[in-house]
Design brief:
338 residues; alpha/beta; globular; Methanogen_methyltrans; Uroporphyrinogen decarboxylase family protein
Length: 338
């Protein structure tokens, strides 16, 4: 769908009745009767999954798989794949400055990136009633998967030049990857930078935000929006550097108080969150997720720039009765408060 994304975001902000925008993709496995392993390996299945979800729920946008192993696999990381869980990265592939120096930047299309790009292209060709967003990892979160998600925080102090060099390399790759998504006809990317949520505000300002900004500056325009996602528990403290990225909109996890976060978001900027994906979508009940959703929406009702969402990617085996209850709660909230 060819759409002015600035107008879309403005329309969402000004709408009296807002559609939810959860990060909802992997539960398509249940609608299709396939495994996660089958889904991540086939662009037709991924596109069909996005189409099935778009038919099932009245979300504000369609989001492709938020699989944060794809980009690391391109660089040579080993991934662990299971039948019903999102793939994960195992170990690290670099730990010394010399190894980072020697690390090649992969071509877009390496690993499974060609599958994911093709899936978004196919989805964009068939989903016309809402924008289509591709899922992509953020620079610090990718660097952490290459260096080890724990060790990288120590390297930020002990080997800052090495971390900066690696960030330069992964950012160059992510810009190319994002441009490939842009060429598919997608309307934007959901850029997931969760690992940065573990940093101090000063470290996030140095090792995450500037590299995210490079990506935003290279990709974002009137017809292609970057939605920044961070589900860390320190996002309120680091909100200034997050906003400095210039992303079109922001998405936060359930580790924070969303009502408190909204106090820090400019009135003309959309912020989304943050119903617990594991505690509610995966392990809750229709009654509990309804209560959590209504409580969140009531708490944030004073902010026209708030859009209700999941706190992060909804796990593959989340109950569809819970997902349906979430959307029903959103509809009921606006029906009650019209």
């Amino acid at each position: 769908m060819n759409q002015d994304m600035k107008e879309w975001l403005t329309g969402m902000r000004e709408a009296k009745i807002k559609k939810a925008l959860p990060i909802l993709s992997f539960p398509a496995v249940q609608l299709m009767g396939v495994s996660v392993k089958e889904l991540i390996s086939d662009s037709d299945r991924q596109a069909e999954g996005m189409e099935r979800i778009a038919e099932r729920v009245d979300a504000a946008a369609s989001v492709s798989l938020m699989d944060l192993s794809v980009e690391a696999e391109c660089f040579g990381s080993q991934i662990v794949v299971s039948e019903d869980e999102v793939p994960t990265v195992k170990g690290s592939i670099v730990s010394e400055p010399e190894e980072v120096e020697a690390l090649n930047i992969p071509s877009v299309g390496a690993g499974r990136t060609d599958i994911y790009i093709d899936a978004v292209r196919k989805a964009a060709e068939t989903i016309h009633d809402r924008p289509v967003f591709a899922g992509m990892i953020g620079p610090y979160s990718l660097a952490g998967r290459l260096l080890d998600v724990t060790e990288i925080m120590l390297y930020c102090y002990d080997e800052p030049e090495m971390v900066a060099l690696l960030l330069d390399k992964v950012t160059e790759f992510l810009i190319s990857y994002g441009k490939a998504y842009k060429e598919t006809g997608a309307n934007g990317i959901m850029l997931a930078e969760p690992l940065a949520g573990l940093l101090s505000p000063s470290l996030a300002e140095e090792f995450s935000a500037p590299y995210v900004k490079r990506i935003v500056d290279s990709l974002q325009d009137d017809r292609f929006a970057v939605i920044y996602h961070n589900c860390g528990n320190c996002t309120i403290q680091m909100i200034d550097s997050i906003l400095d990225t210039g992303s079109a909109a922001y998405h936060f996890g359930n580790a924070i108080d969303m009502e408190e976060m909204m106090k820090h978001i400019p009135a003309d900027t959309i912020a989304m969150g943050n119903v617990d994906p594991a505690g509610q979508f995966r392990n809750g009940t229709p009654e509990s997720i309804r209560t959590a959703t209504l409580q969140l929406m009531e708490a944030c009702r004073g902010y026209p720039n708030f859009v209700v969402s999941s706190g992060c990617d909804i796990p593959p085996m989340s109950k569809w009765e819970n997902i349906d209850a979430f959307f029903q709660a959103v509809a009921d909230f606006y029906g009650k408060n019209r």
